[in-house]
Design goal:
- By secondary structure, the chain is α/β, with parallel strands linked by helices.
- The protein has a single domain (about 10-325), classed as TIM Barrel, CATH 3.20.20.
- Helices cover about 35% and strands about 20% of the residues.
- It is built from ten helices and 13 strands.
- The strands form two sheets. Strands 1, 2, 3, 4, 5, 8, 9, 10, 11, 12 and 13 form an eleven-stranded mixed beta sheet that branches. A two-stranded antiparallel ribbon has the order 6-7.
- Helix 1 (about 45-55) crosses helix 2 and helix 7 packs parallel to helix 9.
- It is globular, with a radius of gyration of 19 Å.
- The relative contact order is 0.14.
- Bound molecules: ligand PBG.
- Ligand PBG binds near residues 115 and 279.
């Protein structure tokens, strides 16, 4: 009877499993703040995707940590870059059996840890994002040149598409990133490559474990001038709306748990598929409490994932993907 009246479903096919590949590694490395999640060497990627695929999870989201960083993040659009190599290996082995998504951003690749490039003084007419000190708003560290950043983001997206990425996922929160990437992809013949931006990506404390593990903590200031403030629902909806009008294929709310009202509102307002990103800090909180014996980690994880589905997300990017997939097939 309980299964008959069950209103919300959750299956491995609703999940996207993040994979972080680090160029300098020769074997897997644990992430201390995220028990159960490892940084992978390139040589382990195919094996990892095999195990994800065997669990019935249809998609992975690739993140890369390059060996070389510079002021414009060149290694992000190198055709032999770490994400490009990982994607082409996955494509070769799995073909259409695995949807390959990839993060499109500069922050792991720039020496500043910012998602855009810092202006060299001579900025174009596009919008600017000033970088402030969080503790002292009067101090300005520098300015991110939005439109110069767009050029780099489009190069990353096209090089990823060339290497086999099916869905590019820009997370830089630069204005106009989706439409710029769409036209660059189309001009390069990648009309079938989809775009799933981190549409309403909030300026959040929930990214710390990821930033620590992937070396993308900003070296000065913070990301408040380009990510969405968590106080603003209407602003988040405007971000989603602009992505819809820029021709994206899937919209995303990020993080998920503290933003379920926005997931529900996005579901009501838009007819595109809605994704939610259950981020590193949300994972780390559960793991820390479970490790201390305060909660049943698996039960809490399922409860969280079901709540995201109940709010209206079609798909969830989550570090719990592999851990919960088995129990979902059984129920
Ligand atoms: C890079 C990026 C971040 C996350 C995904 N892509 C970090 C950030 O914006 O600082 C966070 C993911 C997570 O916490 O799980 N732009």
């Amino acid at each position: 009877m309980r299964s008959l009246i069950k209103e919300t479903s959750l299956a491995p096919t609703d999940l996207i499993c993040p994979i972080v590949v680090q160029e300098s590694l020769t074997e897997r490395a644990a992430i201390e703040s995220m028990p159960g999640i490892q940084l992978l060497p390139l040589s382990d990627v195919t094996k990892e995707v095999e195990s994800i695929s065997d669990m019935g999870i249809p998609s992975v989201m690739l993140f890369g940590i390059p060996t070389v960083k510079d002021n414009i993040g060149r290694s992000a659009f190198d055709k032999n870059g770490i994400v490009q190599q990982a994607a082409s290996q996955i494509k070769q082995t799995f073909g259409d059996r695995m949807v390959i998504m990839a993060d499109v951003c500069l922050c792991q690749y720039t020496s500043t840890g910012h998602c855009g490039v810092i202006s060299q003084g001579n900025v174009g007419a596009g919008s600017l994002h000033h970088v402030h000190d969080s503790d002292n708003d009067n101090r300005r560290f520098g300015t991110i040149d939005n439109d110069a950043s767009l050029k780099l983001l489009t190069k990353i997206a096209v090089s990823q598409a060339e290497s086999g990425v099916d869905v590019v996922s820009p997370s830089a929160m630069m204005d106009g990133q989706a439409v710029s990437i769409r036209s660059a992809l189309d001009e390069s013949g990648f009309t079938d490559t989809m775009i799933m931006p981190h549409s309403a990506k909030h300026h959040s404390g929930f990214y710390s474990p990821f930033r620590g593990a992937t070396e993308c903590t900003p070296q000065f200031g913070d990301k408040a001038t380009y990510q969405v403030p968590y106080t603003n629902t209407r602003e988040a909806m405007l971000e989603l709306e602009s992505d819809v009008s820029e021709g994206v294929d899937i919209i995303m709310i990020k993080p998920a748990l503290a933003y379920l009202d926005l997931v529900a509102e996005a579901r009501r307002r838009f007819d595109l598929p809605v994704a939610a990103y259950n981020v590193s800090g949300e994972y780390a909180l559960v793991k820390a409490a479970a490790t201390a014996g305060y909660v049943d980690g698996r039960q809490i994880a399922l409860e969280i994932l079901y709540s995201i589905r109940r709010a209206g997300a079609d798909m969830i990017v989550t570090y719990f993907a592999k851990e919960v997939a088995g129990s979902l097939t059984e129920t």
